[in-house]
Amino acid sequence: MQVLTTLAAATAFLSSAIYARPLSNSLPIQSDTRSNCLTTADADYIVNSFALLINSTFSTTLAADILAVDFLDYSDSIDFLAGTPLGDATFTSLAGFEAGQGGQPPVPFQVLSIDAVTCTNIAFRWLAYPGTGKYEVKGINIAYTAQTGNTGNGANGWQIQTNFVEFNVAAWDLDIGGSCTAPPPTKARRS
Q1: Is residue 191 very low, low, confident or very high in pLDDT (cuts 50, 70, 90)?
Q2: Which residues contact 29 (CB under 8 A, 6 or more apart)?
Q3: Which pTM was predicted?
Q4: Taking CA 107 as the corner, what is the angle to CA 130 and CA 136, rounded to the nearest 5 degrees?
Q5: In sequence order, what DSSP letters do the residues of the chain get, joined into one string?
Q6: Average pLDDT of span 77-97
Q7: Whole-angstrom Cα distance, residue 1 to residue 6?
Q8: Which among 158, 141, 117, 155 has a CA at the least distance from the CA of 30?
């Protein structure tokens, strides 16, 4: 009975949280009523180009095409693997991303889906097989974009200004020779 009471209380809390106001330190959610917004084609170009930066020979030209000069990237997953403090920006500029990602070998990386495109934001899920590739590493990116680039590029000038990425760090760690103990895989897989 206590389990049901706890479950009911948690359900009530979560359903009321749906209507809660955003935290004051959250990024503002922009209305989609503006006339100049990302198109689906722009979002596809940005996401697929980002995937190319991970899964093929790194291209500074492509990076400069889709990432703003003042690009910020936040990932506690990457920070954990790098042994750096959690919560801080992982990369604080395009040059920092180029130095960090450009020095890495390509990682088999595929986009599973682009789940949301708003006027300026893109949410997408992905799958990677770093290192040994024994474990699937699933992740999610939320990219905040702005039209800061050359409007002649493939995304009509849209570039990622701030990126938030998190993924299964235990699986990544095991794939690159770490020692996390992963739980056994479930019988049914999700995409």
Answers
A1: low
A2: 22
A3: 0.77
A4: 40
A5: -HHHHHHHHHHHHHHHHTTSPPPTTSPPPPPTT-SS---HHHHHHHHHHHHHHHHSS--HHHHHHHEEEEEEEE-HHHHHHHT--TTSEEE-SHHHHHHHHHTSPP--EEEEEEEEE-SSEEEEEEEE--TT--S-EEEEEEEEEEE-S-TTSTTTTEEEEEEEEEE-HHHHHHHTT----PPPPPSS---
A6: 93
A7: 9
A8: 117
